[in-house]
Give the backbone structure.
Amino acid sequence: FRFQSPSDDVQQDKKLLSQKQLGMALRKAASIGNSRLLLEVCQKFEDPFAALDEEQLSQETLTLMFKLLSLDIDEDTEVKLDWLQEILIQIDFDSVSAETPKISEQVDSLFDELKLLVNDSLVDGNLQKKMKTVMRLLRKFQMN
């Protein structure tokens, strides 16, 4: 048994990317908790809907992706919103809430951050629309 350092995990994930094993790379990036690496993998997919539909990720992986993509939402916002929208559509709120009690805090925090960004006059209309869509999906989660 050989202990893998976080940099070994990142190198392994980059190898998966180079081999076009994007689904495995998504799962690996989410599992090691590296938000920059996950974003890099997400950017390799042209369409988050097609990627998530094709890859059939577990609820655990979707939850990890939600947590990581929710971080620093004011950076790479458009890509993150596209992915968060698809993740929130596919996630099973009941099982996630039971398994990850703190998820509701993250949902609330992301909702508040998006609310502030929507009101920012520098945000263009298309991005505001995406923010509002993700906020609607977050609100459904908050209601459960």
